[in-house]
Amino acid sequence: YSSLTSGRVYWNVLNKERRGEYLGATVQIIPHITDEIKSFIHNVGAASQADVVITEVGGTIGDIEGQPFIEAIRQMALEQPQDCLFIHVTLVPYISSSGEHKSKPTQHSVKELLSLGIQPDIIVCRSEQHLPSDLRDKIALFCNVKRECVIENCDVSLLYEAPLVLEEEGLASIVCKEFGLGDLEPDLAEWTHMVDCLRNPTVTVNIALVGKYVELHDAYLSVAEALKHGGIPVGAAVNILWIDSETVTDETASLVLCNADGILVPGGFGSRGVEGKIAAVRYARENQIPFLGICLGMQVAVVEFARNVLGYAD
Q: Is pTM, for the whole model, over 0.85?
């Protein structure tokens, strides 16, 4: 679930109540909110004519925000028992000091889920290290799932390896079997090629990201991920040079940005660091370095051109 989905659900219920569709009945979480959530899920499948709809209920079991969603999918499984499958993702911590995994968090999470009326069909175990066979046996026994339905999901060096690892574990095959779809073989050639390109880049490019929040890289997470994604189709590893815009001036730009194959100036708020962004743009323009300005970054490009090319000093 997400705040956007929650907002839509509650907004739809409010509008229906205002139109009198509940015939004066008291609007309640159950059944009105849960019915709206179920309709939301059904509509996704109907609109796209999908064979399978994957619905993620995020957060942690027991979160108060997620309870209406958990209740809604419980009702769906009761109404359509042959068409619902529950995959529960749990954490299996690895205690490095003792060299052992702990299954108790998974057991407690499943117990909490059972108290809400849902029995997981498959348990996907997130862990830093590979799970020993006896631990899988224990989880299967204590959580009342089939042994083959305890799926390992270890940390991987690249995020995009995760689907390939889950395929090796047989997750898709088990899901198809549970739904009676037969033993279907997925075509992962394109995905495997993408992962190979990420693992074995043929070239490395340095992109200077000139911003004012560079000490907190997550502030530019979407930009950083977009840069890395842009390198995949051409086999390029993108090395981001995190440049504090307050350190860039017309005098220091050549020193700070000399190793950049491209320069990106992202958005930002307030006047701090803006002059440094303008100086970075000027360096890119005068030295014919590929440049991309996003939001404020594009605005300062206009400012730089107006000042230094058109002569608008103000």
A: no
pLDDT of residue 4: 60
* 137: Cβ contacts below 8 Å, ≥ 6 apart: 147
Strand 122-127 relative to strand 150-154: parallel, antiparallel, unpaired?
Answer: parallel
238: pLDDT strictly greater than 60: yes
Instruction: Give φ, ψ of 188 to 5 degrees.
Output: -105, 20
Picking from 280, 289, 269, the residue whose alpha carbon sits closest to that of residue 308 is 280
Cα separation of 96 and 111, whole Å?
26
Is residue 24 left, alpha or beta, with left meaning phi > 0 and alpha meaning psi from -120 to 50? left
Strands of 150-154's sheet in order across:
87-91, 122-127, 150-154
Given the structure tokens 């009326």, which residue do they identify?
A: 117
Single-letter code of the amino acid located at 43: N
Give the list of residues 6+ apart from residue 139 with CB closer than 8 angstroms, or none.
Answer: 92, 103, 106, 107, 123, 125, 145, 150
**Cα–Cα distance measured from residue 231 to residue 205, given in angstroms and rounded to the nearest whole number:** 9
DSSP H or E stretch at residue 26: none
DSSP code of 205? E
Across 56-60, 156-160, 252-256, the highest mean pLDDT is recorded for: 252-256
